[in-house]
Amino acid sequence: MNGHLALPESAPRLVVSIHDVAPSTLQASSRAVRRMEQFGVTCSLLVVPGLWQGMSLSDSPRFIDWLHEVQTRGHEVVQHGYTHDKVTAPSWARLTSAVMTRGCNEFHTASKTEALRRMRLGANALEQYGFAPIGFVPPGWLASDGTIEAAEEMGFSYLTTRTRLINLQKNTVIDIPAWSHRPNSTLSFLGVGWWKLGTLTRSLIHHDLRLALHPGDITDKKLMAVSEDCIRRLLDVGYVSKSYSDLIQPELSLVC
């Protein structure tokens, strides 16, 4: 639910996803959710369910309570890999993941068997605390064919890549690119320029879009200010906030 005018279903859709949500990033994640709620944005929260940055779900009852609380406020919990590991991979895959995602390659070249193993461990960890996500987003949006097959076998309703949302139940695809920043990098200024120019373009030519916020973006005042400005501008020109689950379950989506 948001405070913007009701628009027809043909209105362009904006998905804001908060990545790497975990006990170790609770402060940044909660800050981002609060900020997005001020814009009337419903977020998809990409939760790392395994041991990551030295902490697991069992280490933080406070994180579990917070995640249940924001879920009741309408935000979506999504499974984001298992441990977000950098794994052994062929040289071409290591180069691709290093350039595009700083080595986030947990599912980039995974076999179906390995992908299933990791997905099940993650799903079991979330289920233990009362969460049953319908969507799976691999770290870095990098998914092998085996990963996509495994997600379908697991019963996930959707999986996302960098450019698409794959409806695994209906075998359909929504073209919806994802923008992200490059925090703590000499290339950060290029990302900022892209977000600003891209927002102007999208204001004139309406197409569905995803904006991804990572912990490094949220804690960087400049990057967060740019992100918030882009989101505000897109909402002002008619974009409608949606979660991933809204995109595949439009009958459950309400706009007021």
Order of helices and strands: EHEHEHHEHEEEEHEHHEH
The oligomerization state is single chain
Low-confidence stretches: 1-8, 251-256
Number of helices: 9
What percent strand? Answer: 15-25%
Radius of gyration: 17 Å
| Top CATH class | Alpha Beta
Structural class call reads: alpha/beta
Just name the CATH architecture. Answer: Alpha-Beta Barrel
Task: List how many beta strands DSSP finds.
Answer: 10
What is the global morphology?
A: globular
Return the average pLDDT rounded to an integer: 88
Helical fraction equals 40-55%
Superfamily (CATH H level) name: Glycoside hydrolase/deacetylase
Please, how many domains? 1
Q: Terminal Cα separation, in Å?
A: 6 Å
Give a quick account of the main beta sheet: strands, pairing sense, barrel closure.
6 strands, parallel
CATH topology: TIM Barrel
